[in-house]
Write a structure and sequence with these properties.
The structure is a homodimer of 247-residue chains. With 247 residues, chain A is an alpha/beta fold. Chain A is built from seven helices and nine strands. Chain A is 40% helix and 24% strand.
Chain lengths: 247, 247
């Protein structure tokens, strides 16, 4: 088992920010500023081409930490953020950009590349959760949630499917091809976001992935608009979802 | 034009409750207890077999009045609450109960009967809104929303389709047969609730009605569960929707 190595610590906006590594994988832990009482933990997965401290991650963390008093942890996905890209990463990204420029569907490439990253990331997330739970302010038996859209769903959904410590999850905006059979193993409460007019993910594909979850408590939020137009208020909704289920 | 006749007034739980009639139609207006500043108005339509002061109406009003400082008005639908049932009402209700007891689909009867009630209710809602806007604490140019599920959608959706004073609406749980062509005329922000495992309304029917709205800003909330299992937190979501759009 890897332990958590804190590499730097700072404070801003009422949050304590600690950079860490677990087994060489870089991550960030955002925590409430006051006291060391135990609090729930939300693990967040970032989107493709982004990284652990992307403004979308920091913004959601702010809501969860300041608004709910939770801890929030993000690790860089393989080939993302502070981690090197392999020759395979470079080839897949080049292929994605080529398809986009040619006006070809990007789904097949994203599905295939994200499934590859998800396999690499699964043991990394398990090691990170093991190490985070060693911290006294988190603990081994506290509630844990997972929040990730796009690539954060492709990586997080297979992780949640095999990780009994996670008791509530927010996913969204991916294809069912690889993920539906993993979703069939998930029974915890789920909130799922999709865009009704997504130009990359067909409507039927989004509905099929939501349908696949075995959870008796699951909610689909489908908003009018294209792939990148997911409304800001869905982040607030996710925070309320975690407040309901992790407190 | 009919005027608003206040028939009684009381206060409880921080809300002022005024019973009224408009052109003989009984209604209730719930308002904030303090002051006479102008505030937005939410019109609510009750469900089939219920009435203007059903606990679901009073509960939603409490959230909108105490939580947002809004006014909330509900009128009894034709044949409901304090209004007499016609021979036609009695016959349709008997037919609905017969179909239920026989295990036959209730959709065709509900769709037909609710469309009949919606035609009667449309001028009643317009008269009620006219009269409510005469009150100085509401006014003729303030924001107005509409909130109604089930029969409250069957009656409210055709009303909203022709009523430019309403600028945001929450609907849900009905069939597209009669309503889809009205929804195509609606362009205001809409939140739409459906149950993913509704035993009365086929999933494809619920999705088709949501799809029909012409609104560029619309959100579908689909929850796992049967027709009557709509989660309580959807009422809170509707309140936040109105707070975003009417303030």
């Amino acid at each position: 088992m890897y332990s958590l190595k804190i590499t730097s610590q700072s404070s801003a906006d009422g949050m304590v920010e600690r950079d860490f590594t677990v087994g060489g994988v870089p991550g960030v832990l955002w925590s409430p500023g006051s006291g060391a009482d135990r609090a729930p933990l939300v693990l967040m997965g970032h989107g493709g081409g982004n990284h652990k401290k992307h403004p979308a991650m920091a913004g959601r963390a702010q809501r969860l930490v300041a608004g709910c008093g939770f801890h929030v942890a993000v690790i860089d996905a393989p080939g993302h953020g502070d981690r090197p890209r392999s020759a395979h990463d470079e080839a897949e990204i080049a292929e994605l950009f080529r398809a986009r420029a040619a006006g070809e569907p990007e789904g097949p490439i994203v599905v295939r590349y994200n499934a590859y990253l998800a396999e690499l990331a699964l043991p990394e997330w398990q090691a990170a959760l093991d190490a985070l739970q060693e911290l006294p302010e988190i603990g081994a038996d506290g509630p844990v949630g997972y929040f990730g859209l796009n690539m954060g769903t492709a990586i997080g959904l297979p992780f949640v499917a095999v990780e009994p410590r996670i008791t509530a999850a927010v996913f969204g905006q991916h294809w069912p091809d690889v993920l539906a059979e993993k979703a069939e193993q998930i029974t915890i409460p789920v909130e799922y976001d999709m865009q009704w007019d997504d130009e990359h993910i067909p409507r039927e594909a989004g509905l099929a992935l939501f349908d696949a979850f075995a959870s008796t408590e699951k909610t689909l939020h489908a908003n009018a608009g294209r792939h990148k137009e997911l409304p800001r208020f869905e982040a607030d909704s996710a925070v309320r979802f975690f407040a309901r289920h992790l407190r």
